[in-house]
Amino acid sequence: MAIASVPGQDRAKRLLQGMLRSGKIAHAYLFAGPQGSGRSALAQAFAMTLLCERGGDDACGECLTCRKVEHGNHPDLHRIVPDGQTVKIDQIRELQRELSYRSAGSQRKIYVIEAAETMTTQAANSLLKFLEEPPSPVVAILIAPSEQAMLPTIVSRTQLVPFTPGDPKAMEALLVQEGTPPLIAKSVVHLSAGFEAARALAAENWFAEIRNVVIQLGREIPSRFPGVLLTAQTQVFKTDLSEHTDILLQLFALWYRDMIYVMTGREERLVFPDQAEWLSKQAWTRSVHAWTRSMEAALSAVRRIKANVQPQLAFEQFLVTSAQTAG
């Protein structure tokens, strides 16, 4: 994949290609931004460009070197991923041994560390020493969610390449262009930090099903409580959809935001445009403040699940709050 073909992240691409044109390549980079924003894809494209036989500010994608990078078997490109929950010191030591050998022919060696924020203290300290005295032909690319997730001493020795959440409209158009159903595309872009994540979510077979459950439950909450608890039990928690309760809740937040959009004349922004007629009737039964409280209840339940509250309990408490608010 060439740099130009990575969707979005124009600022990051301009920064990297400017360095490539000037020939001022840093010995270490920190690709910092949310998961799914294209960090790994751009790291791969940047590495391919650095190793490309033709040089320039983007990979040709055709030479033998580019093809080796694309197929994951270039001897001078090394990728580290967490061993279990963390990147361990033995992995960093093995990497350093690999990098001490002579290059297989290219001018530089490159290593990419995924989830660099998970490095153990020993691994981070070992890498720090390596960054302080880098072999000149070696380039490091560290991938992390933010600068704050990394040791300041490591951040100070890297060139920051910031990644930002993608523009939903642009991502939606790209997904539809690739063949994603428009209603699915419209939903996933609001649940994803970038195009990679949106594309992956859209490809999940369960996503369309979980969207339908949100519509069913959302329609039932105002009139069929507590029967809606039974629906949730049978449709979600006795099925594999229970593994995706966080996505279900995030979709509910968007469902209630659509109510607010109807009330404020912004129907063109609806995430559930196929439900516009029902939403337009229901929205005016409550105040904007009440719908906002329902949105907040859904997002609060997501946070509780991340804090290890049992998903079914968090979801049922959200349903109770929503029924009290929207009933």
UniProtKB/TrEMBL annotation:
<dbReference type="Pfam" id="PF13177">
    <property type="entry name" value="DNA_pol3_delta2"/>
</dbReference>
<keyword id="KW-0548">Nucleotidyltransferase</keyword>
<dbReference type="InterPro" id="IPR050238">
    <property type="entry name" value="DNA_Rep/Repair_Clamp_Loader"/>
</dbReference>
<dbReference type="InterPro" id="IPR027417">
    <property type="entry name" value="P-loop_NTPase"/>
</dbReference>
<keyword id="KW-0808">Transferase</keyword>
<dbReference type="GO" id="GO:0008408">
    <property type="term" value="F:3'-5' exonuclease activity"/>
</dbReference>
<protein>
    <submittedName>
        <fullName>DNA polymerase III subunit delta</fullName>
        <ecNumber>2.7.7.7</ecNumber>
    </submittedName>
</protein>
<dbReference type="GO" id="GO:0003887">
    <property type="term" value="F:DNA-directed DNA polymerase activity"/>
</dbReference>
<dbReference type="InterPro" id="IPR004622">
    <property type="entry name" value="DNA_pol_HolB"/>
</dbReference>
<dbReference type="GO" id="GO:0006261">
    <property type="term" value="P:DNA-templated DNA replication"/>
</dbReference>
